[in-house]
Amino acid sequence: MLLQTQPFIVGGGRGTRGNCASGGFPLFQRRRVGVVGMSRATSSAGILPYSQSKSVICSVSVDESVSVRWGHDFQLPGHGEAHISCGSWRSRACLNVDAHKSVLLDGTSIEGKVYVERYQTHCYRAECPVCYENWAAREAGKIEHRMLFCGWIGKAIHVVLSPSEDVVKKAKSFEQLRSEAYRIAKLAGFKGGCCIPHPYRRKCGICGAILKTGYRTCLFCGSSSTRWVFGFHFHLIGYGWIKGAKELYEETGWVVKNLGVRESVFATAMYQLSHAGIRKGHHVVIWFGRLSYNNLKAPKLLRKEHRCPVCDELLRHVIYVGEKELPEEKGGFWSNLEGWIAVPNRFGQGDYG
């Protein structure tokens, strides 16, 4: 018997990444995508989210398109192994039943009842095929938070720096190429922000044309099949006034493209992180210029607190030992007290978390 629920929040899903194309790169097909803070739409602009099955996990293979040795160190998000607990369902609840004496809008009495929230556990690793979207959402939230404290008047801008193939081949390491990207950004008028490296570009799986950002199909042949090839570039989100792009390209071989002001820093960062370059043991998001850690001290983003909607108590980690089946969807509901047992949080620092 399934517990009768009164949902407060809706969401949820888990699975893996998708199948590999014959050339070794993932060939992403059209599916529904939905990530926190972004609209649900059928698009292949980013890396597709996981499905229900965990039986197929495919990684981006290195082939002749990777023109430098250090380029083999990069992978796309969600192409690693998940932990056994990733995506598992757990509960947190308010057991302060003495304070629950009101009546819901639909006339249901909650006197003496427990408020319960169902949620999924996540490891927040970029390589995890179950949790990579949650990792991207957390990182995007940190980016948006830091932007609020930089003191710049106006909205953030989105800039793309693309080195020529010769520039990439001459770079002895990724760090050297990134340092050069910082120098080019400064010459172009970018004052500071975060840098998100992208080692791959989307190409049409039929004619090989570079797919334009935001488009679901190839503008040349109309195909919707996609493959990823090595083509290093950097996405910058920050502040400044971009100028002299033509002269910089002629002098340095770097293409500087200003994509304009951002209505939502979170949404922009979320999308860019969905197919950023992942290196084991290294941070994906790097801050530089006026927003570097040496130049800007921003307060830490506080962890979200989960509280009871009636008495405002912090929710406790609980387990259910009753006979009824719990719902596997994110949300809150009211239940009888019987069967619910409070347990310490995973850090062993008390009952609340």
Distance between the termini: 29 Å
- The secondary structure category is alpha+beta
Major sheet details: 5 strands, antiparallel
Uncertain spans: 1-63, 347-353
Number-wise, the strands total 12
Tally of helical runs? 5
Helix proportion range: 10-25%
Oligomeric state of this protein: single chain
Portion in strands: 15-25%
**Shape category:** elongated
Order of helices and strands: EEEEHEHHEEHEHEEEE
Radius of gyration: 23 Å
Q: Biggest sheet: strands side by side, in what order?
A: 11-4-3-10-12
Mean pLDDT: 79
Describe this structure in words.
Among the domains are: 61 residues, no CATH class; 153 residues, no CATH class. With 353 residues, it is of the alpha+beta class. The longest helix is centred in the middle third of the chain and has 16 residues.
Q: Could you give a short description of this structure?
A:
15% of the residues lie in helices and 22% in strands.
